[in-house]
Amino acid sequence: MSNITIISNEKNWMEHTAVTQLQGVADLPGAMQTVGLPDLHPGKSPVGMAVVTQGVIYPHIIGGDIGCGMGLYDTGLDGRKFKLERWVTKLNNIRELVDLPTVNPYNEPSPIYDLGTIGGGNHFAEFQVVDTSYDHTACHAIGLKDSQLLLLVHSGSRGYGQSILKRYQDCRGITGTEPIKSYLEEHDQAILWAERNREIVVVKLLDYLGYTPQAKKLIDCQHNFMEQKGDLYIHRKGAVSAERGPVVIPGSRGALTYIVQPAGNTAMSAFSLSHGAGRKWARSLCKSRIREKYDRDTIRQTKLKSRVVCHDTDLLFQEAPEAYKSIDSVIDILLQYELITVVATLRPVLTYKG
Q1: Structural domains of the chain ordered from first start
Q2: What is the DSSP string of 208-256?
Q3: Which of 16, 151, 155, 179 is most buried, most CB within 10 Å of its CB?
């Protein structure tokens, strides 16, 4: 395990399967450095991981949701005037964002593939307010203010990225070859598409709720993507870059979101940071473990007094706060390793899943 670094501590439970998967990735030809972050958990490829390769790239590590990430927007609305019940009622009238018309404002051709939607699983659109500011100078630079209503969108490239993976998933090739050049070009297009998808989600939601969209992007950070650094390639699966400014690290729907600034020697973490809390339970186990704890109404509320709009009861249980690690523990580990400083925390007020 000489080329593996696991950033964790004795308090952070990490599933053995995830560590075994990480070892499998580290054994791939050309893998120079493999990092498991505090939110590491199993997936088709381990999630919460960065792997640095030389001379070869592996599209299957990135997976199908190329460009999946977090976009944080200032809605232009005053959080003190937020009408929770009114918005819950209105959002309950649509099952999915695909039910709302989508306008593609970009001039160049762009594949549709459910443009302007967030998808299933752990994807969401969440209205938030500032809970605590720890670095007022950094907050000002980002554009965070105490009174504003924010919108955090977690989504990716939807069917577009998946179509790319289908064509290149067996393409584990030497850099500089034609198939790899083609994959990287399409990969970059999917990253752009995913970022634009998040922007259109914001516009659609605010327009549907009856407001002239005045949203301003504050942060956008991908966590499923590949980045070239000299002659090396950093594959990130559920990990964000530590070299592109402030980062959004959300917890579960019942926890705070952290805004952090990368710090220290991030070379040890492959210039990467955690993308969230990380799953603790497999989705198949969630409902049986907490079914008796909630009814149809309480599953749609959180301990932070926020509300959840979601028409899929199974998904509500699969994405319950109990299914995730503590975001506070993840942040504490990143602080312990001197990889970040905390700028602010954000509190959810309304989460939409669809």
Answers
A1: 4-352 (3.90.1860.10)
A2: HTT-----EEEEEEESEEEEEETTEEEEEESEEESSSS-EEEE--TTS-
A3: 155
